[in-house]
Each structure stands twice: as C-alpha cells, then as structure tokens.
Specification:
By secondary structure, the chain is mainly α. It folds into two domains: about 60 residues, Alpha Horseshoe (Serine Threonine Protein Phosphatase 5, Tetratricopeptide repeat); about 70 residues. It is built from eight helices and no strands. Helix 4 packs antiparallel against helix 5 and helix 6 packs parallel to helix 8. It is globular, with a radius of gyration of 16 Å.
C-alpha cells in the first residue's frame, strides 16, 4: 500500500480532479478519503468533515476507517460527543482494528479533559493480545505524556 502525501495548501487542481472522480464513481471511498484530506490540508475543515460523513454513507468497505476519520474530523470542529459516538461505531463495525480506534478515542477523551477515561482505555488496549508493537509504543508514549493521575 502506498501513501500519497498532499502538500499543504494549493490543492485546487487536486480537489477538482478528485471531485470529478467522485462524480463518475461516488462509491469510491478511498478517493473520497483523498478528497477530504486535500480539503483539510487547504484548511477547509468543514468541507473535509462533510466528505468523511459521505464516506460513511457510501462505504461498502472500510466503514470502520470511515467512522474513525469522520470522528477525528469532528474533533477538529469541536464536536466531541458526536466524535466519540463515531469512534464507538468504528469499533463496532470493524473489531479487527479495535485497538487503533480505541487509541484514537482515548486521544479524543484526553483532548476534552476526560483523562481518567482515556487512561482506562489505554490500559484496556495494553491488555489486549492482538495489539501491534507500534500501537503499544504509541499508547505507552501517550500515557507517559499525560501528567500525573487525574490531571492533564
């Protein structure tokens, strides 16, 4: 799998190209993810979140990823309650990637000041048998970055 990096700003031609692809193939969720990413890099966060929402509607595959991306977008536009619901939907829809979604949910909980709940999720992740070494590393770093019990 290759990852395409999109430069910050100046994505008008790329956005136009991706919108044209969406018109021809509205169910191509991977291209829609790219469109949302291009919009986000241009600072058009509301438009990006809207595209992530469309991904959920159109997804035939990658629905868990669509919910997670949408949730992360919602956090950026200060809608944490709705975001947390979509993290849960990602976990429910795609349990094979639950550790990844739980990690993002815990990060979101930390952002809104619910540190104890975040710590509980991080502990839950570390207790899982299916956690990759990379996820373990990320979780351990995030826990270490949290200062003292019950504090920021």
């Amino acid at each position: 799998m290759t990852t395409q990096r999109i430069k910050v700003g100046g994505n008008d031609a790329r956005v136009k190209e991706l919108r044209a692809i969406m018109e021809k193939d509205p169910f191509n969720v991977n291209q829609r993810f790219m469109l949302a990413s291009a919009l986000e890099s241009d600072g058009k966060i509301q438009d990006a979140v809207k595209e992530y929402g469309v991904c959920i509607e159109k997804a035939r595959r990658n629905l868990g990823v669509a919910h997670c991306n949408y949730a992360m977008g919602l956090m950026k536009i200060s809608k944490p309650e709705e975001a947390l619901r979509h993290f849960d939907l990602a976990i429910e829809t795609d349990p094979s990637n639950a550790s990844f979604y739980l990690s993002n949910k815990a990060s979101a909980l930390t952002q809104i000041g619910l540190h104890d709940k975040a710590r509980a999720i991080y502990a839950q992740i570390l207790d899982r048998k299916d956690v990759s070494k990379e996820t373990q590393r990320i979780v351990i770093k995030r826990v270490a970055d949290m200062k003292g019990p019950g504090k920021k």
